[in-house]
Structures are given as C-alpha cells and as structure tokens.
Write a structure and sequence with these properties.
19% strand; 3 domains; 5-stranded mixed β-sheet; Dna Ligase, domain 1
Length: 410
C-alpha cells in the first residue's frame, strides 16, 4: 500500500519582503529588509532570502542590517497591501485545493481526501499549488509545502527546505527526519518550554519523540503535552475548539508619544478602534484592561469587570479612571484589551441600569462607524488624537489575527 498523508501545509517564504518585491519589481533579486515602521533605525519585521543569508532577520536594526548586508534596501511594512496579497494567495490556492484553515498571514493548511492522500498524488498537488501562486499572484511569491498525517508534522515538513521547498514526513520517517532540529525549532515549543523539557531530562527531539504520553502530559502540566506528542508521532488528534474571548490592541510608542499624556491619548485611540471592532464583529465586552511598558516602572496594568457594553464613551470614561491608577514612568508601549466577549444574540440589557446607553446613542455610534467606513479613517473621531499619528493603529497584522478591510477605515 502506498504511503498516505492527510494534511497539506503551505508557508509563504519571506512573505513581507516578497510582497515588497512584488510591489516594486526593481527590488527582485536584491536583499530587502521590511521595517516595523518608517523610522530611523527601526527594526526589521522580515527579510528577503538574500538578506537572510547575510544574517539579517526579525528584530535586526537598520544599522546592524547594513553592516551584515551591504546594499540592503529597506521598506516599511504596508499592512493593507500585505492583506490584499494574502487574499490573492488564498484565491490562487483555492483553484487547486480548498483552504481548510488560515493560521496566519502567510500560513494555511488544506485537508486531503480520497486518492489525494496517496503520497505521489499529494506531491503533485503541492507542486500545482506552488505554481498557481507564482502564476496567479506574482513570481516573487514563493511558498514551501509540507505533507504529513498531521498538521504539526506537515508544518515541520514545510520548513525543512526553503525557499520553495516540497517535502513530506511519514511516521516511518521518524524520528530520523527531524532529529537535526532543536526542540524550539518545533512549532509550539517556546524557549521556556524547551528549558522545561531539558530540566525534565528531554534534551533533544529524539528524546522527545521517545517520551511516554503520560510523561509529556506531566511536563506540559496539561493534556496539551500528550496531544502534542501524539501529533508529532503522526497520530490523529482531536483538539478542542476554542472560543473568541477578547479584542485587544497595543502599540510601541514613537518618540513623539513617549510622555504620560501622549501614552494616554494612544491608549484612547486604541480603545476607540477596539470598540468599533466590537460592534462590527457583533460582541459586547464585559471587562476592560489597560496597561503599558515603562522604562522605569516596568510593566503596569489595571482593569476589571464592567457591565456588558459596546458604548465607546462609557469605555473611554472607564479607561480614564483606570489610567489614573497606573504608575507610568517613561512609557514605552501601551495596550488595551476588551474581554469577556458576549455575542449580541446572548446579550440581555438590564432595564434597571440607570446609565445604560440609550437607543439614540447606539444609533449614533452606528452612524459614526458607517461614515468612517464610507469616507475613510477619522472622518468622525472621538476626542483628541495623539501628538504623533502612527499609521495602521489598531489595524496591524499580528500573530493569529489578519486585519480585514474595515480595520483600515475605522
């Protein structure tokens, strides 16, 4: 019987840099560093394959990147443009195989069924998928494809050869095909988890693969460890579904906003964006947390439960109360989080709540949202803007979240 796989995982190679090259064909074949923002000595969020070969990677500052890679070209990340390419890539993939799940801006997985699971045919599907992205989106956008019986192994397989790799991992290939990887080279194992594994007598991937499932559960401190190990071995694992619990936005402060007042105005702007998302996505929030990172006072935060609300003004009033309790000393970054999300269908207003928003106020926020969507960001704004306006506030691509078009107009 020929080997079979059930999951195809594809990973776009140097996605942000490849998008910059697709937008500017003159950058093709040149080392490119994509910056977090258009500011002096900003850090790279990504680097092209040529720049990576010189040692430039995520977090490399411009000065260091120039030293490592003379001739490197820098471009600030354009989140809206990257989202547009993301959807074009998904459309191209769909001409070959339905996308089952989007994991991030540059990673997705597909399920193989029937004869598609035969390894030889699955490999051809992988080649067809790579070709579709190159033809239908842009020649700068290469992807690596991994095939395996589980999503975890397929993701590992996709990372074995870059750029434009095509690889498979079968249970019979294990552990030999992955023993060269570091523990934290496996998806889902952080540096902290690696330290925990090493302390438990599991120094490498070979030892991890040989671990007893109950022992993995004990090291992780939950059943997630056993699930992880079984997936690593190629066994079918059913992971519990997760529910949406929060909407949050954060921002590293630019020089013009690194004052207590500047930080407060940034936090208010982030909260206005979060409240608009709350209404658009059909939720009420039942908690608010606000915090920051400071050069002198470290990480500080304050928050608590609130009545279920979508009301921007009530949220801003609550934020101001919480803000006064924060010991901010030389703020560097701020964040706001709306938690305890409750779907609109499950929300029952409290008729006895004296300060409950009126129907007129609900219509007001709906009208503000509609005007901003139609005519552009900040057509109608609530309160004062920060001293330094930062592009893509509340609409940046983040791990596990891909902005939608509406995010860029709120």
């Amino acid at each position: 019987m020929s080997p079979r796989v059930s999951t195809l995982f594809f990973d776009m190679n140097s996605f942000y840099a490849s998008v910059a090259q697709a937008e500017e064909p003159a950058l093709m074949g040149r080392p490119v560093g994509v910056l977090t923002t258009d500011a002096r000595n900003a850090a790279c969020i990504a680097a092209s394959h040529d720049a990576k070969k010189c040692g430039v990677g995520m977090g490399t500052r411009q000065d260091e990147a120039r030293r490592l890679c003379p001739g490197i070209v820098f471009r600030p990340v354009k989140h809206d443009v990257c989202v547009r390419y993301h959807h074009a890539i998904l459309a191209a993939v769909e001409t070959v195989l339905p996308v089952h799940r989007v994991w991030s801006i540059d990673e997705c997985s597909c399920l193989l069924t029937g004869s598609q699971q035969e390894l030889e045919r699955a490999m051809q599907i992988g080649r067809d998928l790579q070709d579709a992205v190159l033809r239908l989106v842009h020649p700068a956008l290469r992807c690596s494809v991994g095939l395996a019986p589980t999503r975890l192994l397929a993701k590992v397989a996709a990372g074995l050869i870059k750029p434009a790799g095509l690889n498979s991992i079968l249970p019979s290939d294990l552990p030999g095909k992955i023993t060269h990887l570091d523990l934290d080279g496996l998806p889902g194992i952080s540096s902290r988890m690696k330290a925990r594994l090493v302390a438990a007598g599991v120094p490498d991937v070979t030892a991890l693969h040989a671990l007893a499932p109950k022992r993995a559960r004990a090291i992780w401190g939950s059943v997630a460890g056993e699930r992880f190990l079984r997936e690593l071995r190629g066994e079918t694992v059913v992971w519990p579904t997760t529910t949406r619990g929060m909407i949050g936005h954060g921002q590293v402060l630019t020089a013009g906003n690194k004052t207590p007042e500047g930080a407060r105005l940034v936090a208010r702007r982030l909260l206005v964006k979060a409240a608009a998302r709350l209404r658009r996505e059909g939720f009420f929030a039942r908690s608010l947390q606000v915090g920051g990172k400071c050069a002198l006072s470290g990480r500080v935060s304050h928050g608590g439960e609130i009545r279920a609300t979508q009301d921007t003004l009530f949220l801003l009033e609550t934020l101001d109360r919480y803000w006064r309790l924060l010991p901010l000393r030389r703020p560097l970054a701020v964040h706001v989080t709306l938690g305890g999300l409750l779907p609109e269908a499950d929300h029952t207003p409290d008729l006895f709540e004296a300060d409950r928003p009126t129907a007129r106020q609900d219509r007001l926020f709906g009208a503000i949202d509609a005007l901003n969507q139609r005519f552009g960001q900040d057509t109608i704004r609530i309160g004062q803007l920060p001293p330094h306006r930062v592009a893509y506030t509340g609409a940046k691509i983040a791990f596990g979240r891909i902005p939608v078009a509406e995010d860029f107009r709120e």
